[in-house]
Amino acid sequence: MSTDPAGKTALDRSDARVRHDQGMAGALRGFGDRVRSGDLGSLPVVVGLAVIWTVFQTLNPVFLSANNLVNLLFDCSTVGVIALGIVAILMVGEIDLSVGSVSGLASAILGVLWVNADWPVAAAIVLALLAGAAVGVVYALLFNRLGMPSFVSTLAGLLAILGLQLYLLGSTGSINLPYGSPLVNLGQLWVMPPLVSCVLAVLAGAAMLVSNLRTAAQRRAAGLTPPALGGIVLRAAVLTVLLLGVAIYLSTDRGVPVMFALFGILVVAMDYALRRTKWGRSMTAVGGNREAARRAGIDVRRTYLSAFVLCSMLGALGGVLSAARLASASQQAGTGDVNLNAIAAAVIGGTSLFGGRGNAYSALLGIIVIQSIASGLTLLDLSSSLRYMITGCVLAIAVIVDSLARRSRMSHGRA
Amino acid sequence: MPNPTAPGGEPVLSLRGICKQFGAVSALSDIDLDVHAGEVVALVGDNGAGKSTLVKVLAGVHQPTSGTMTFGGRPVALAGPGEALALGIATVFQDLALCENLDVVANIFLGRELGRFGLDEVGMEIRSWTLLNELAARIPSVREPVASLSGGQRQTVAIARSLLLEPRLIMLDEPTAALGVAQTAEVLNLIERVRDRGLGVIMISHNMEDVRAVADRIVVLRLGRNNGVFGPDASNGELVSAITGAADNSVSRRAARLGTDAEARP
Question: Looking at the predicted complex, does its ipTM rise above 0.90?
Answer without folding.
Answer: no
